[in-house]
Design a protein that fits this description.
heterodimer; A: about 110 residues; mainly beta; 6-stranded mixed beta sheet; about 0% helix; about 45% strand; globular; B: about 120 residues; 7-stranded mixed beta sheet
Amino acid sequence: QSVLTQPPSVSAAPGQKVTISCSGSSSNIEYNYVSWYQQLPGTAPKLLIYENNERPSGIPDRFSGSKSGTSATLGITGLQTGDEADYYCATWDSSLSAGVFGGGTKLTVL
Amino acid sequence: QVQLQESGPGLVKPSQTLSLTCTVSGGSISSGNYYWSWIRQHPGKGLEWIGYIFYSGSTYYNPTLKSRLTISVDTSKRQFSLKLRSVTAADTAVYYCARGLAATLLVYWGQGTLVTVSP
């Protein structure tokens, strides 16, 4: 049971937009930066978003991040079949003094 | 281009020590404000943060693993390592090493290595 709560799955049609939520608390998301990772089947996770809303070089602007209070959101527009993957949020938990990941959300592009 | 590669036994017996090494190429392991990290993923499950060793040598561990865990670095070999003692079947997972700019800002990842704990 993760301290960061994500929906187990989301789905949308190609070309559409989807959002993935990550709910935490004042000991993690509210006062710490959030990162988002994409994990394609059988591969290592890949950094998509860091510091709540920044994209590393090479990540298309179809991917965006935001944070408000104790929740963060990953947005993906112009969905492609290649976006089918598991998505994880992550942040530092000041109470645990440890990094924490969300439970992951499986994105299906119908 | 920075690359990381995990290595170590794929099978460990219960109660023994799981030892993995991450070899870094394409960049220095002894300079820069980097967090040399370990993350694991149980079969079919989500990611679990294990811990890191900072470039200065300081370490931070997952509290649930802290009593059994040691992360160390060998700068001469450009490697950092994980040792997890007294393993059980619950430690069966794919183990990833990564280089981060913060504890959970992990930019470069290894491909992962599956470690199975079984008699």
